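Retry 2 of 3 after timeout on previous attempt. Resubmitting structure tokens to design endpoint.
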């Protein structure tokens, strides 16, 4: 039976058989035992599926990945130690030194550094483009060595909406997959595969875990991209892997090729797997994801309306507001609401923002976003404090931007705290 996503977040993944534990077991084991040397050898040759070492795969993680895969409507998935690891592997699985890819410039700062600075040192070049680039302009960014296009469904921290269909269309015209970081929307509010994305990533650290308890990531493959049809572009998937006796992933594993390669090659070599204990917490968080997202969105819309009406607020971005420039895109991709994150600026200077934040009583200042407790961050004073106002603007962040992550408390109390904070400035 095909369940709705709100049922999948509770029921998918671990399905106990007769007499087995109701709750997902934590396979707290580095290794797995086999009766014969031959059986173990076949696992190392990827001739059989099974577990041998938790640096590559662990059953607890795989049950949780299977749940997220089901929620996204994907074919295969894997957990990673963080969202950063997920985005790195998602690209590095198909790009090598000498290759190029294209990414939206409005992506999360950590991903922007990874793509623009660290991967550059590995010989992989990234061209950043505006979310509102035209198809013709985007076409011109492609080179013979371009291997992927990347964007975020809802950008962190500017909360603008990525036009998935537009980017998918252009990526496919050039024979490359579209990778979408779906962290802020979650599969409750948007499922990028339904709009043509090929691969989805998550920082599960955010809404999926939902309680600020564990850092983690996930990669989901739709299985839709035909690697063999563009074999010359993706030799890692379409030519023999000598480290596994010359198997060809795309031929041997079909729709599972991309995740199998990322697990058996990148996890083996880089070892950024999520701990099974964290995967267990993540799974608990997923059970309530739909109810929490509904509450986050309802609370955030009420808070956004309150802020918009305040004469202390200079500007606000929240795509669920009807007059937001991204509202039409939000209605298309996230008809049930976007997320709980709001970006806004106060009239005044950097110090006004600091005074406001320091006046808050319940809402806390933390380097986090998208969990159950309302929190905020002022990039100019925190994550980006080394930058001048000019440099901040170049990074696409206005110096007065406050990122407010609306939690699931009673919205009256959230608004009351904001109101008394605004009165102090
Ligand atoms: C936080 C975040 C990341 C990085 O995830 P970590 O789990 O912190 O490594 C990537 N993408 C988005 C959209 C994020 O919000």
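Retry 2 succeeded. Sequence:
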């Amino acid at each position: 039976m095909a369940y709705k996503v709100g049922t999948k977040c509770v029921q998918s993944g671990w399905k106990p058989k007769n007499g087995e534990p109701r709750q997902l077991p934590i396979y707290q084991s580095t290794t797995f035992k086999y009766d014969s040397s031959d059986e173990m050898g076949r696992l190392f040759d990827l001739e059989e599926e099974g577990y041998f070492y938790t640096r590559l795969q662990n059953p607890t993680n795989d049950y949780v990945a299977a749940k997220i895969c089901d929620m996204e409507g994907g074919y295969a998935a894997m957990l990673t130690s963080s969202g950063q690891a997920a985005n790195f592997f998602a690209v590095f699985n198909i790009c090598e030194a000498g290759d190029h890819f294209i990414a939206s410039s409005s992506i999360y700062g950590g991903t922007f550094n990874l793509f623009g600075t660290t991967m550059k040192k590995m010989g992989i070049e990234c061209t950043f483009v505006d979310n509102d680039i035209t198809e013709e302009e985007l076409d011109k960014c492609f080179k013979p060595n371009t291997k992927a296009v990347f964007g975020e469904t809802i950008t962190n921290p500017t909360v603008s909406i990525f036009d998935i269909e537009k980017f998918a269309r252009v990526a496919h015209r050039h024979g490359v997959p579209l990778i979408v970081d779906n962290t802020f929307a979650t599969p409750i509010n948007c499922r990028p595969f339904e709009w043509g994305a090929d691969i989805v990533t998550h920082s599960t650290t955010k809404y999926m875990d939902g309680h600020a308890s564990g850092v983690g990531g996930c990669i989901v493959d739709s299985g839709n991209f035909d690697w063999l049809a563009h074999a010359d572009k993706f030799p890692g998937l379409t030519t023999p892997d000598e480290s596994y006796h010359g198997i060809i992933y795309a031929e041997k594993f079909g729709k599972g090729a991309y995740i199998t390669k990322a697990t058996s090659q990148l996890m083996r070599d880089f070892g950024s797997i999520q701990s099974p204990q964290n995967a267990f917490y993540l799974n608990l968080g997923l059970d309530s994801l739909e109810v929490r997202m509904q509450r986050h969105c309802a609370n955030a819309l009420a808070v956004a309306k309150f802020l918009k009406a305040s004469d202390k607020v200079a500007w606000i971005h929240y795509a669920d507001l009807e007059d937001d420039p991204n509202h039409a895109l939000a209605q298309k991709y996230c008809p049930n609401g976007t997320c709980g994150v709001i970006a806004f600026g106060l009239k005044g200077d950097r110090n006004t923002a600091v005074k406001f934040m320091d006046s808050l009583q319940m809402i806390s200042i933390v380097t986090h976003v998208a969990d159950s407790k309302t929190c905020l961050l002022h990039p100019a004073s925190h994550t980006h404090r080394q930058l001048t106002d000019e440099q901040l603007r170049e990074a696409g962040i206005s110096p007065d931007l406050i990122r407010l992550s609306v939690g699931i408390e009673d919205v009256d109390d959230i608004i009351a705290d904001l109101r008394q904070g605004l009165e102090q400035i």
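Attempt log closed. DSSP finds 17 helices and twelve strands in the chain.
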